[in-house]
Design a protein that fits this description.
Elements: E1 9-12, H1 19-49, H2 56-84, E2 89-91, H3 92-125, H4 130-133, H5 136-162, E3 171-172, H6 179-183, H7 191-224, H8 229-257, H9 267-289, H10 292-311
Helix pairs in contact: 1-2, 1-9, 2-3, 2-9, 3-5, 3-7, 3-8, 5-7, 7-8, 8-9
Length: about 300
Amino acid sequence: MGGNQTQIKFILLGITDSPHAQTPLFVFFLLPYIVTLVGNVGIITLVRVSPSLHTPMYFFLTQFAFTDICYSTVISPRMLADLLSEDKTISFTACMMQFFTFAFFAISECYLLAMMAYDRHVAICQPLLYVTIISSRVCWQLVASSYLFSFLSAIIYTWCVFGGSFCGPNRIDHFFCDEFPVLKLVCSDTHSSEMVIFAFVTINVVGTSAIILLSYISIIRTVLRMCSAQSRARAFHTCTSHLMAVSLFFGSGFFMYLQPPSNHRSLDKVVSIIYTVVTPMLNPFIYSLRNKEVKGALLGSQTSIYFTVTCL
């Protein structure tokens, strides 16, 4: 990427080109972003202040909430600013950095969801060895390794997308600098870059999906061997929140990134909104409203605050 390349400016066409729809859309997307920030910060704070939630499962959940905050912040503020601005230009460097950070946190979420599935597998299938296998040290090692691999993968993705020659149109038909809309503007041959990207997406998305699938196959086999119906229901209940998050994130991810570039259509913007705006907003509700431990910790913290205020 030479010096001349970095002087290029792109124009983000955004969600809509209708000036009358932009202000309502700003309000419509501002609320989910605020809910995303408040909900995920709330999850992190609750886990930190509640001793009953100091377990590997909730350690991974705080990391997941953190990536949701970062993942959403990479996209939403720029999208909201563009909805109120007539100047939708973005520099080559800013576009490249947006894509890099987006790729980094998206890949990190894949690995965190896989870790959470493995955590549930060990908790249900090997409960007596759970503390030994999923120790605090192992948790940090898993998270650190996932961030490292995500960082390396994001560098490769970014080089494949922005390493070509941009000498023609500069209008990105999207609301952020995503892979396929940017590759459409590259003048040089992108076949090899697309193959490398597809290979790494397959490794990251399909690889982590396989870990999740194998974990749940083992969980289902173990649960079905349980004698008590109450034990089976409790085991399945601990997994439902995770399965809902996996379905939302991986469902949209498979649709977007595991299809040929020629198949990408205007529907991609709608799917992109689902995994960049809707999913980070819903995850705190999924993990709080369907989780008795989180609801119990929340009620306990509210009770503590009430007694503190009363005493004062």
